[in-house]
């Protein structure tokens, strides 16, 4: 695996373009970025081999899928129970993501449910996982800022050039 310690503006522009349209082809990306197809292919391969570009996934509108309730379960764990709890959470189909955290909780799980009653049932199921000591739940009302990468990548590369392709886009 190649280790990449930094990216330049062209890498950032490529990642942003891919985050907006993961199905974009090399020719389309090259035209959009104003560089040669080979440049896009080489950058894409380097980002993929380094692990920075970890794959592609479809964005699914959970509400339209019939899952209008998104919540965050903050869990406090017994000492040494992290692996057992994360394994247990990973077996629950409504759990979308699990993060270990600092602060008053040890783990935060993002979940999606069809109803508040289903969420309550899920919480009860989570509480049966060995090692979960206490839970606090926050329900998301709206998501005014969706998950995004563009602004962060632009900030990280604001003082970078666009590599050998020239700095045509300022």
Automatic annotation (TrEMBL):
UniProt xrefs under InterPro entries: AsnC-type_HTH_dom, Dimeric_a/b-barrel, Tscrpt_reg_AsnC-like, Tscrpt_reg_AsnC/Lrp_C, WH-like_DNA-bd_sf, WH_DNA-bd_sf
Residues in HTH asnC-type domain copies: 7-68
Highest taxon of the lineage: Bacteria
Xref: Gene3D superfamilies: 3.30.70.920, Winged helix-like DNA-binding domain superfamily/Winged helix DNA-binding domain
Cross-referenced SMART domains: HTH_ASNC
GO biological process assignments: response to amino acid
Alphabetized UniProt keyword annotations: DNA-binding, Transcription, Transcription regulation
Pfam families linked: AsnC_trans_reg, HTH_AsnC-type
GO MF entries: sequence-specific DNA binding
UniProt KW Transmembrane keyword: no
Name by which UniProt lists this protein: AsnC family transcriptional regulator
Organism: Nonomuraea cavernae
Any one GO cellular component localisation term in the record: cytosol
Signal peptide start-end: none
